[in-house]
Amino acid sequence: MQLIVYLLLFISAPIFAYDQNVIFITWDGVRPEDFFSGRNDSSISTEPASFLGKFHKEYAPQGIVLGDEASSSSMSVSNDSNISFPAYLSMMNGIYTDYCHLNQITPECLRNPIETLPERVLREKTLDKSKVAVFASWDRIKDAAESTKDSLVVSAGPVEFHDPNFPGAHDEINRKMHENINEWHYKNGERDDASTFNHAMTYIRNNQPKFIWIYLVETDDQAHGNNYPGYVRTINENEQKLEEVISTLSMMGEYGKNTSIVITTDHGRGQGPLGWMHHGNTHPASRKVWAFIKGPATKGLGNLKNTHYSHLNLRPTMERFMGLEPNVKENVIKEAF
After folding, report:
1. Can you tell me whether residue 97 is helix, strand or coil?
2. 241 Cβ contact list (under 8 Å, min separation 6)
3. Which of 17, 11, 28 minimizes the C-alpha distance to 320?
4. Which contiguous run of DSSP H or E holds residue 71?
């Protein structure tokens, strides 16, 4: 009788075939029309430019790509503002962001009121704190990633990072960060993407985290500055960073084989020579976003056809990758499995 009870409990319990690591990367403010076309927008610049060539030829077919209107697919933000901080809240929460509509620190936007994806991973997987981390070029990302202050390993904005597990490993990156900030005027609360990325990659090699979020900001900065050549150059630099992530994982044995990469953007942009610099609810096109997922679970479907997703689909999909039962099961991106 006792054996039958155990068998019934085993059968009725949820069984997850996945227990992967996740590297979550966000490129701030990259338009779908740029991401998918891979060439310059002639309404903005007549100078020929191409980008993401290796991505579309080599990496996209290895995973799945969401939001390509040419394939009758779409992906959208999950807030009414079409701006950054509310978008990152919805990604971390997996729910529509209707309580915060600003990037600024206000009472309703001060800190995420919901247990975030990385916090849940740390708690439910009973991990050492070093196994969940966030590296971001913008300091506000800390408030999107955490509902409880200092619950995670977070390095965000123009601050030095020191890993207690590997003293000195980040010293040269910290030194270079100060040089980079002095060479180019970053907005308040920002540091250069190169420093953010180098911190994150050093951390991945040393700590092999279960979940890490790498946030890069310079695409959005270049666009707001009406620097289309700089925007294109930064997209190509982001592609090179992706190449380094993939190459690094290929040399990390079982950890690399069992790691999924998820990349997306927080919002699109307006259109035309003036509108492309901006985003927000006065620019409806900035609701359009995209995503790329590559890992041991994903089928090589490339650009998905006839699908319609949003930022709300990202958290439950990553939860399932990491062996957690999604809070909203119907939002899991089924093609990712």
Report:
1. strand
2. 25, 193, 197, 216
3. 17
4. none
Give yes or no for a contact between 23 and 259, defined as CB atoms under 8 angstroms apart: yes
pLDDT at residue 10, as a whole number: 43
Angle at 142 between CA 139 and CA 145, to 5 degrees: 145
DSSP 61: G
Q: Pseudo-torsion of CA 205, 18, 328, 92, nearest 10°?
A: 0
> Would you call 128 helix, strand, or coil by DSSP?
coil
| Pairing state between β 302-303 and 291-294 | unpaired
Instruction: Work out the burial of residue 253: count CB atoms within 10 Å of its CB; fewer than 13 is exposed, 13-18 middle, 19 or more buried.
Output: exposed
Contact 192, 186 (CB under 8 A): yes
> Are 165 and 207 in contact, with CB atoms under 8 Å apart?
yes
**Residue appearing with tokens 């076309």:** 37
3-state secondary structure of 37: helix
Q: Which amino acid is at 45?
A: S
Strand ranges, E, within the chain: 21-27, 64-66, 74-76, 132-136, 153-156, 211-216, 259-264, 291-294, 302-303, 308-310
- This prediction has a pTM of 0.94
pLDDT in tens, 49-94: 899 999 999 999 999 999 999 999 999 999 999 999 999 999 999 9
β pairing state of 64-66 and 211-216: unpaired
